[in-house]
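Consortium newsletter contribution from the modelling node. Members have asked for a concrete example of what our holo predictions look like. Here is one, prepared for the adenosine-5'-triphosphate complex that several groups have been discussing at recent meetings.
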Amino acid sequence: MPSFVRHMLLIVAPLMAAFAILPGVYDNHLLLFNFVIFLILAQGVNIIYGFTGYLPFGYVGFFGAGAYGFAIMVMHLQAPAPLAVLAAGVVGVLLGLLLTPLLRLSGAYFAIANLAAALAVLHFVANPALESITKGPYGVALNGTFNPTLAYIGAVIILALTLGFVVFLRNSSFGMALQAVREDAVSAAMAGVNVVKMRVIAWLVSALVAGLAGGVFAWYVSVFYPDNVFSSDFSIFAIVFALFGGVATIMGPIVGVIILYGIYNLIGFTTPQYFQLIYGVLIMALVLFLPAGLVSLATRRGWNVP
Amino acid sequence: MSPDAKPILTVNGLVKRFGGFHALDGLSFHVSSGEILGLVGPNGSGKTTAINVISGLYAPDGGTLTYDGASIGGMASHKLVHRGINRTFQIPKPFLSLTVRQNVEVALAYGRAEVAPPKLTDLLEQYHLAELADRPAADLNSSQQKMLDLVRALATRPRLLLLDELAAGLNPTELDWIAGHIKALAQSGLAIIVVEHLMGFIEQITDRVIVMNAGKEIFEGTLAVAVKVPQVIEVFLGGEHGA
Ligand SMILES: Nc1ncnc2c1ncn2[C@@H]1O[C@H](COP(=O)(O)OP(=O)(O)OP(=O)(O)O)[C@@H](O)[C@H]1O
Ligand SMILES: [Mg+2]
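And here is the predicted structure:
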């Protein structure tokens, strides 16, 4: 069996099945929805950071832009929700295109510039002067499209597509070429790889993923403020989850989200007073002892982690 | 090779500046298919810079590069690779976290070799990397990494190959071995430019040498003649003092 098919059957399909069944047996649907959103975002970070080495500290910019893209489509064009989610993806891609010059930067410079860009988008959207379009700082309420069940299904579909793309990256010469670019751009060019084109593609796909996630999030919550959908928590969580599991794999970000977001909610519910402390210690331990993520426990032993 | 063969690469008055410093200052030479041209000169004379400009890493600030009848100055590296130019690096640059096999697979998939590229297993076998095929390139020692650079370059089926100090750090047996490979590649029709400090090695494999100093050529001919030219001798001794 080709490994692409094997990965789809053994990783993606069971995960989809789980998210199809869980709402029937578990009552906290918001939590399930959030898991799906973070799985999407962590894989989006995986695409851009894991496969190309750009750390998107302002990743939430695409998410928030997508959420507002959705809101504007619904408020001003009376678009049906699924169409508005697609438009949110387009908004993510357009913002990505606008920010492609950032790809000339590297390392911390890129991360900081990306963070600044996300803040710029937040302040643009939240500008009171744009109240007639975005409702400025006062937030939007999209009662007409409120439908958590459908929004949840939409999120699961987006997750499936995102995972499908990561499975493709793991199993194609395209994904390998991206990793080559991440390792050494000059050498990648000498292998015949069009470095700029590859980076832009990965960047735009990762922007698309976050834009779609933002759109479906807006659909699900239907009432939100700029600070909600541009919260840096989204960027930080998505990055930490992806890194914790291990990037440039399919499994790493999935494991990262399930474990860390699981613990996050567990501590949050039971002992909220120790929450920040425990979480902080966990992340520090990770950085100190497992810089390449949980999957490196296996890869160090020579096991191949999909 | 026939001495009057039409050159595959002609470098004419090439200039490359870093700030106000002229790393290349009007360099001119040519190389033909099947020929091994040595590029020698003291440290800092611009040999690596010449290779970097020819392989598209830097755009030239002046002069012309003609390859296969077309002007290629300032063209992006990957496009030059698709046209048949490739190189190795003085400090090898493999994809460290990828396996040796994957390193070569990228070049096989993206090199757009004009004729069918050589088989991966044969390449690895020839350059003593077969045993290491599934190890990350980071596990290789420096000379193995240089061989991997070479194999990656060969996987794209180059017609012009630039070797930047490929032999440095090899023991005498390995030197003979790699010399044999380079000669065989030239016999199969490749034009090869070899940058090297080991004069014995240059003597053994090159048809002709260009001696560089301060960014331009000061001699062109055989090494046997070069070592008798006062200007060349002075540059090498001066280079030693300067270094
Ligand atoms: N990217 C760069 N930026 C600034 N200066 C550079 C750069 N690359 C090379 N130089 C300078 O250009 C000059 C020529 O360097 P180059 O590496 O081409 O020499 P070389 O002949 O290859 O020397 P070596 O034998 O030591 O490898 C040196 O003075 C070097 O410091
Ligand atoms: Mg050099």
